[in-house]
Amino acid sequence: MLMNTKEILTQAQQGKYAVAAFNVYNLETAQAAIQVSEREGTSVIIALGERYFPTVDVEGFSAMIKAMAEKVKVPVALHLDHAYEKESIIRAIRAGFTSVMYDGSKYDLEQNIRFTKEIVEIAHMAGVSVEAEIGSVARGAFSDEEEGDGTLTDPQSAKAFVAETNIDFLAAAIGTVHGMYKGEPKIDLALLEKIREAVGIPLVLHGGSGTPENVLKKAIELGICKVNVNTEISMAAVSYLEKYAKEKQTAHLSTIMAEMQQAMEPVMTKFVRLLSKK
Ligand code: 13P
């Protein structure tokens, strides 16, 4: 069933578990995410980034996710990931997304507050919840996200940011990276604890891929309610396709796509099991 992202994350916060937000870009990624969550009996957030707007029919995609969500028992939310433009946010709201992320992390605190506040006012009028970020998540290997400078979130700025903007979820930069880590991950869990003390709303961890399992578990204990996962899923699909191309078989595209979907599912299952309490 389709459910508001805020409801899903409020339940996660109360239950002290986290929900996976899987980045999707086509039918197979969406089907894999929803089927895995239904099998595991967990909520899921389907996340489409603004960067895929040029290649994905946003309205058609939203209608498809809503139809898929209605067929399963588990709660499914539809989230706009990393949007930098107000127009994209309005488009997603009109298309029926249940939450949006406005990424003003490249601006200074005052500007980020001003722009985010405006988005919150628009989104809340439509009953859509808003995620925003202060600090900035750096980019590691194989990621498709924008480069961030890796500035960690300052707890007192986070407190002011949440109070002034009235956002629903905060993306906290604590040293995770978008993509795979190029060296040892340096994730500041003590900082996360301070952010948790300063801010009451659900916290979001970007850069799920490659993050050590024990760190993810500890981060959830410290208040992370949503973990974004993209790169590891993409890598599983791409390595299936590479292997396929090397073996030079001839097959129908429908078979290749179905097998590619199967190749992504173990990664999603791993994250779903890790994040949920079971
Ligand atoms: P990864 O690519 O590291 O999994 O991060 C995804 C993400 O945070 C999308 O917002």
What does the model show?
The chain has one domain (5-275): Aldolase class I (TIM Barrel). It has 10 helices and 10 strands. The protein has helices spanning 5-15, 27-40, 58-70, 86-95, 109-125, 155-165, 189-198, 213-221, 231-247, 253-275; strands at residues 19-23, 44-49, 76-83, 99-102, 129-134, 138-139, 169-172, 177-178, 203-205, 224-229. The strands form 2 sheets. An 8-stranded parallel beta barrel has the order 1-2-3-4-5-7-9-10, surrounded by 10 helices. Strands 6-8 form a two-stranded parallel ribbon. The longest helix is centred in the C-terminal third of the chain and has 23 residues, at 253-275. Bound molecules: 1,3-dihydroxyacetonephosphate (13P).
User: In the CATH hierarchy, what is the superfamily?
Assistant: Aldolase class I
Number of separate structural domains: 1
Helix content: 40-55%
Strand percentage lies at: 15-25%
In the CATH hierarchy, what is the class?
A: Alpha Beta
CATH topology: TIM Barrel
The CATH architecture assignment turns out to be Alpha-Beta Barrel
Topology order in helix (H) and strand (E) letters: HEHEHEHEHEEHEEHEHEHH
List the helices and strands and how they pair.
Elements: H1 5-15, E1 19-23, H2 27-40, E2 44-49, H3 58-70, E3 76-83, H4 86-95, E4 99-102, H5 109-125, E5 129-134, E6 138-139, H6 155-165, E7 169-172, E8 177-178, H7 189-198, E9 203-205, H8 213-221, E10 224-229, H9 231-247, H10 253-275
Parallel strand pairs: 1-2, 1-10, 2-3, 3-4, 4-5, 5-7, 6-8, 7-9, 9-10
Helix pairs in contact: 2-10, 3-4, 5-6, 6-7, 9-10
Bound molecules: 1,3-dihydroxyacetonephosphate.
